[in-house]
Specification:
The complex is a heterodimer of chains A (287) and B (140). With 287 residues, chain A is an alpha/beta fold. Chain A has one domain (26-245): ATP synthase, F1 complex, gamma subunit (Pyruvate Kinase, Chain: A, domain 1, 3-Layer(aba) Sandwich). Chain A contains 6 helices and 6 strands. Chain A has helices spanning 5-59, 91-108, 120-128, 146-161, 193-196, 212-286, and strands at 75-81, 112-118, 133-137, 167-175, 181-189, 207-209. Chain A has a 5-stranded mixed β-sheet with strand order 3-2-1-4-5, sandwiched between helices. In chain A, helix 1 (5-59) runs antiparallel to helix 6 and helix 4 crosses helix 6. Chain A starts with a helix and ends with a helix. Chain B is α+β, with helices and mostly antiparallel strands and 140 residues long. Chain B has 2 domains: 5-87, F0F1 ATP synthase delta/epsilon subunit, N-terminal (ATP Synthase, domain 1, Sandwich), CATH 2.60.15.10; 90-137, Single alpha-helices involved in coiled-coils or other helix-helix interfaces, CATH 1.20.5. Helix content of chain B is 31%, strand content 41%. In chain B, strand 6 (60-73) and strand 7 (76-81) form a beta hairpin. The longest helix of chain B is centred in the C-terminal third of the chain and has 25 residues, at 115-139. Classes of the chains: A alpha/beta (287), B alpha+beta (140). At the A-B interface, helix 1, helix 2, strand 2, helix 3 and strand 3 of A face strand 1, strand 5, strand 6, helix 1 and helix 2 of B. Strand 6 (207-209) of chain A pairs parallel with strand 5 (42-54) of chain B.
Chain lengths: 287, 140
C-alpha cells in the first residue's frame, strides 16, 4: 500500500537516530562511572598538599611567597576548563555564560584578561569572541594526564611570577551529582590568607632539605597544578553525566515523535482503507 | 610489637599506597633517606627513583616515583609523587607549545571582546536547550 510512505521513512530515520542516542547514552553512563572514580582518586593529593602548605605558611611567617601576596589587580589570568566534544547539553554554554559575567565585571573595572583554555569547545568560543587566548590545550581524551596541562599551567604561573597577571582564576564545572553540574569561577592565586587559616595545636616546624623556600616553591606550584587537574577531571565527569542526561532526553524525545508519527500514519492508513471500501461499495451499487 | 608509621603515597592522579610500615626508604635530593617511626618532622624534595616501604620483616613493597616531595611527621609519612619526570626544560617546552598553539589559532584577533556576539550566541544555545526542555515536559 502506497499510503504514508513519507511518514514511514521518517519513522525509520527517527528510529535510527534514537538508536544512536541510546548508544551514546549508555557509553556516557559507563564513562561517567570511570571518570567519577578518577575524580575521587585525585582528592587525597590536593588534600595532603594543602595541609602541608597550611602548615608551612604558619611555620614560616617571615617568608612571603609571591603566590601569597595580594597586589593591585590590573590584569587577570583565567584558566578555562571546557570539553572537547559537544552533545553534552548546556554544560559548556552555562560555564561560558558565568565566565562572561565575570569578564564584564573586570572590563568595567578596567582589568585586562588573559585566557588559557583547555578543551576545543572553549577554544572555539573564546577565539570567536576575540578574547586574548595566551595558551591552549585540546584533545586530551577521557584520561587526561597532569603532564598534558602542566605546560599551560606553567605559562600562567610564570606570568604571575613576572607580574604580567595579578590574579589567576579557574573556571570549570563542579560535579554536584549526575543531574546537576555547577559552573563556577574560582580564585587560584594569590592564595588568600583565610584559606590558610587552621587551628594548629602546638608549634613545630619541619627540617627542610634543601631549604624552606625551595620546598615551598615546589609545593605551591604543585598545589595549583593539582587544583587545575582536579578541575579538569571533575569537568570530565560533568561532561559525561551531562551527555548522558542530554542523550537520554534526546532518546525520549525521539520516542515521543515516533509515537506521534505512528498515530498520524495509522490515521492516514485507516482513512485510505475507508475510502477504498466506500469506493468498492459505491462501485458495486452502481453495477 | 614493632613500631609502625602510617605511609601514604599519593600522586595528583591517584592514591598509590596507604598503610602501615616499619620503615620507608626514598631517594631524596641530598641522598638516600630511611624514615623510621617517630622521625622528626621533615620535608624534602625527591629524586626520580624508588620508594621502598618495609611493611614488616618479610614483606617489602617498592614503587617508582618520578620525583616529588616527601613529608614526614612523627606518625605519618606522605610521599607526594609526581606523575612524570618534571625537568625544567620539559616544562618549558610544554609551556611554549601551549602558547604557540594559541597564537596559531588566534592569528587574526583584534583583541577586543565582542560581548554582544558572544551573548547572542549563548542566548541562542540556551534558548534551544530551554525549548527542548519544554518539549520534553509537554511530551511526557
Amino acid at each position: 500500500m502506497a499510503v504514508g510512505k513519507e511518514i514511514r521513512t521518517q519513522i525509520t530515520s527517527i528510529k535510527n537516530t534514537q538508536k544512536i542516542t541510546r548508544a551514546m547514552e549508555m557509553v556516557a553512563a559507563s564513562k561517567m562511572r570511570k571518570t567519577k572514580e578518577k575524580m575521587d582518586a585525585t582528592r587525597p593529593y590536593s588534600k595532603k598538599i594543602s595541609q602541608i602548605i597550611k602548615h608551612l605558611a604558619h611555620a614560616n611567617p617571615e617568608y612571603k611567597h609571591p603566590f601569597l601576596q595580594e597586589r593591585d589587580v590590573k590584569r587577570v589570568g583565567v584558566i578555562v576548563v571546557s570539553s572537547d566534544r559537544g552533545l553534552c547539553g548546556g554544560l559548556n554554554s552555562n560555564l561560558f555564560r558565568v565566565i562572561l559575567k565575570h569578564f564584564q565585571e573586570w572590563e568595567q573595572a578596567k582589568i585586562e584578561i588573559d585566557v588559557a583554555v583547555i578543551g576545543s569547545k572553549g577554544v572555539s568560543f573564546f577565539s570567536g569572541i576575540n578574547a586574548n587566548i595566551v595558551g591552549q590545550v585540546t584533545k586530551l581524551g577521557d584520561t587526561p594526564h597532569l603532564e598534558d596541562i602542566a605546560g599551560l599551567i606553567k605559562l600562567m604561573l610564570d606570568a604571575f611570577y613576572q607580574k604580567e597577571i595579578d590574579a589567576l582564576y579557574l573556571a570549570s564545572n563542579e560535579f554536584v551529582n549526575t543531574m546537576t553540574q555547577k559552573p563556577g569561577v574560582e580564585k587560584l592565586l594569590p592564595i588568600s590568607e583565610t584559606d590558610l587559616e587552621e587551628d594548629l595545636s602546638g608549634h613545630w616546624d619541619y627540617l627542610y632539605e634543601p631549604d624552606a623556600q625551595e620546598v615551598l616553591d615546589i609545593l605551591l606550584s604543585r598545589f595549583v597544578e593539582a587544583i587545575v587537574y582536579q578541575g579538569l577531571v571533575e569537568n570530565n565527569a560533568c561532561e559525561q553525566s551531562a551527555r548522558m542526561v542530554a542523550m537520554k532526553s534526546a532518546s525520549d524525545n525521539a520516542g515521543n515523535i515516533i509515537d506521534e508519527l505512528q498515530l498520524v500514519y495509522n490515521k492516514a492508513r485507516q482513512a485510505a482503507i475507508t475510502q477504498e471500501i466506500s469506493e468498492i461499495v459505491s462501485g458495486a451499487a452502481a453495477v | 610489637m614493632t613500631m609502625t608509621v602510617h605511609v601514604d603515597i599519593v600522586s595528583a592522579e591517584k592514591e598509590i599506597y596507604s598503610g602501615l610500615a616499619e620503615m620507608v626508604f626514598a631517594s631524596a635530593e641530598l641522598g638516600e633517606v630511611g624514615i623510621a617511626p617517630r622521625h622528626a618532622p621533615f620535608i624534602t624534595k625527591l629524586m626520580p627513583g624508588e620508594v621502598r616501604v618495609k611493611v614488616n620483616e618479610t614483606e617489602q613493597q617498592s614503587f617508582y616515583v618520578s620525583g616529588g616531595l616527601l613529608e614526614v611527621q612523627p606518625h605519618v609519612v606522605t610521599v607526594l609523587a609526581d606523575t612524570a619526570i618534571r625537568a625544567k626544560d620539559i616544562d618549558e617546552a610544554a609551556a611554549l607549545e601551549a602558547k604557540a598553539r594559541a597564537e596559531e589559532s588566534l592569528s587574526d584577533k583584534s583583541g577586543k571582546i565582542d560581548y554582544a556576539k558572544a551573548q547572542a550566541e549563548l542566548a541562542e544555545a540556551i534558548m534551544q536547550l530551554r525549548t527542548l526542555e519544554k518539549l520534553r515536559k509537554r511530551g511526557m
